[in-house]
């Protein structure tokens, strides 16, 4: 299966790429890694939300009345895939602070590399809302496929997935299982190693965000 470039969006803005390079450096401190992830996520969110629908509404400026654009429809839902998704979530909330937030807890079984769910908490109304799911890494793709399966059962209007890095294997699996989900990433890296880690990658994003081993 080849990658569908129509639903894969690589955000190659120079600021995003510069900050991603700093994050890849193995000697980057936990503090700098966390700060850079927040900054990159905010920059990426600008592109991910570019096509949000708007409607014209009547407002009063200090000078006169006018028709002005505002985001249309129900408020956005951000879904963070625990635990590392929180590092991206904060950056997206910088520009859409009114969004609803849900969490899915998943861990990858080290033997099978399959996703195992341990937590699921969503806003009361997801139906007919636009959803952006966030997780720093799209590696094997098993976790995000499992997460999208859960969210689709709630009947959202649309689903996008935003990640910092993606591997071809994960992109292909997500596109195969959910061809309607658009993927936004700062980099499509080379491949996965035998343990399911992205190469050249940046290591374990969760460990680097939280300073754990």
Automatic annotation (TrEMBL):
User: Per the database record, which ranges form the Phosphoribosyltransferase domain?
Assistant: 11-212
Q: In which pathway does it act?
A: Pyrimidine metabolism; UMP biosynthesis via salvage pathway; UMP from uracil: step 1/1
Is this entry keyworded Nucleotide-binding? Answer: yes
**A Pfam family this chain is assigned to:** UPRTase
Instruction: Name the coenzymes or cofactors required.
Output: Mg(2+)
Identify the EC number(s).
2.4.2.9
* GO annotations of cellular component type: cytoplasm
Q: Family membership, please give it.
A: Belongs to the UPRTase family.
Q: Which HAMAP family match?
A: Upp_B (MF_01218_B)
How is this protein named in the record?
Answer: Uracil phosphoribosyltransferase
Provenance organism: Lampropedia puyangensis
């Amino acid at each position: 299966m080849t990658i569908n470039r129509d639903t894969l969006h690589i955000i190659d803005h120079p600021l995003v790429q510069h900050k991603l390079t700093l994050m890849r450096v193995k000697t980057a401190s936990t503090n700098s890694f966390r700060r850079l992830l927040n900054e990159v996520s905010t920059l990426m969110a600008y592109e991910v939300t570019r096509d949000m629908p708007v409607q014209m509404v009547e407002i009063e400026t200090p000078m006169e009345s006018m028709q002005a654009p505002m985001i249309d429809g129900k408020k956005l839902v951000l879904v963070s895939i625990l635990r590392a998704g929180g590092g991206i979530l904060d950056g997206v909330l910088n520009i859409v602070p009114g969004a609803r937030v849900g969490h899915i807890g998943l861990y990858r079984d080290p033997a099978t590399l399959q996703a195992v769910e341990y937590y699921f908490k969503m806003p009361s109304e997801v139906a007919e809302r636009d959803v952006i799911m966030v997780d720093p890494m799209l590696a094997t793709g098993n976790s995000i496929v499992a997460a999208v399966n859960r969210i689709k059962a709630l009947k959202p209007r649309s689903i996008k997935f935003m990640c910092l890095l993606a591997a071809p294997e994960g992109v292909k699996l997500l596109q195969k299982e959910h061809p309607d989900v658009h993927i936004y990433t700062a980099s499509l890296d080379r491949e996965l190693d035998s343990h399911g880690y992205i190469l050249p990658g940046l290591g374990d994003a969760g460990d680097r965000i939280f300073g754990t081993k």
